[in-house]
Amino acid sequence: MNGTAAASCATQLRWETAVAYFAGELPSSEELAVEEHAFECAACSGCLATVAGLVAQVRDAVRGGIIVSALSRASLDQLRARGIRVQEVPITADAPNETTFAPDTEVLVGRVHGDFRGLRRVDLEFHSAYTDPGIERDVPVETADELIIACSRHCFQDPKGPLETCLKIVDAEDPGRRVVAEYQLRMLGQVAMKPVPPTV
Amino acid sequence: VTRAAVAERRTDDDAALARRAARGDAEAEGELCRAFAPRIWAWGMRHLGDRQEAWDLVQEVLVVTIEALRERRLERPEQIGSFVLGTCRLVTSDRRRTDERRRALRERFPLDLAEGRALAPGSATADFRRMFDCLRALPYAARRILVMTFFEEAPADRIAAEAGTTVGNVRVIRHRALAQLRACLEDCAAGAGEDGK
Fold first, then answer.
1. pLDDT of chain B along its 197 residues, tens only?
2. By the 8 A CB rule, do B65 and B87 touch?
3. What is the sign of the dihedral through the CA atoms of A119, A120, A123 and A126?
4. CA A15 to the chain's CA centroid
5. DSSP H or E run through B30
6. How far is B48 from chain A (nearest CA, A)?
7. Which residues of A touch B35 (CB under 8 A)?
8. What is the CB-side half-sphere exposure of residue A112 using CA atoms within 13 A?
């Protein structure tokens, strides 16, 4: 809080301090000082509440599979540990990959199999007839034989029939943008939208 | 009028509200609840980590606070902030033992915090689509850092190692990403407001 004296509010709580507070990175004495000040000062508590609201929305976004198209194994483990209903489907390059978004699925996870040896970072390009291509850039490659992608129910809210997507995996470090692999994804059936989670 | 002066005046407002509430002013009770709900909720998000748990905490702490005011147990209304913070800590420390009590309190004091929720920053009209667009406007690396920090709860040094950067840089990327997200959500909300006119 950079020397903010409780109750006097000589110095406003800094944004980065509020973010560090929610990241759990402040020393305990500073954390206590932030809290004591925030409960006395409406202006600074507003800053804290703003960050809290954003953190809550980030967490909701992860649960809804909308924040990143590529998941790390650690994130996948966390989703499961928190009771999120994850539906996993294998994705291979040799045939169209058909799947259905099950009604009780919260996050649909594709385990994309391929030969990713020697790659450090890739771009994921999602090409669909219905929308502009979605490109996820500089995704780190964790293992040589698999990438984990997450699909949001939200992405399929307005399918005009089976939603077909071509996933291209591009070597992000190759100036020539070498396409490492291509996959055909086909979403079948109605994708019912879940109620929008309450936001804060 | 400086920001500090505004903040100080608001602190005075809190005390004034507490005094009025202690005299049985129902309107002041409501205003006090709306003033403190976001603060309690933010504290709950930090220490409980869950949106709903945080709102449960808001409900319970406000009930305890209003009870204390009505019963004139708060001797120094100017310390209402300290009292509420202390109540947050106490309530959280024996949270599991108070599950039953909480339910009973809710029935006794069915406070409507819907308005308080709406006042919480970043909330009002943020919808899924807007959030989707604003998140996807951030670079993948920034989103990944947000996920690792606030969902995986990974320490900054591990995030830095994975991202191939320094701890300091992780922190900078993180707070800038949240600031960008806030600005994007606010811009969208303003745009939606203008469209609605």
1. 344 444 444 555 889 999 999 888 999 999 999 999 999 999 999 998 888 889 999 999 999 999 999 988 888 888 899 999 999 999 988 775 655 565 566 666 655 444 344 334 444 334 667 887 888 889 888 998 998 899 888 899 989 988 889 999 999 999 999 999 999 988 877 776 665 54
2. yes
3. positive
4. 23
5. helix B26-47
6. 11
7. 42
8. 28
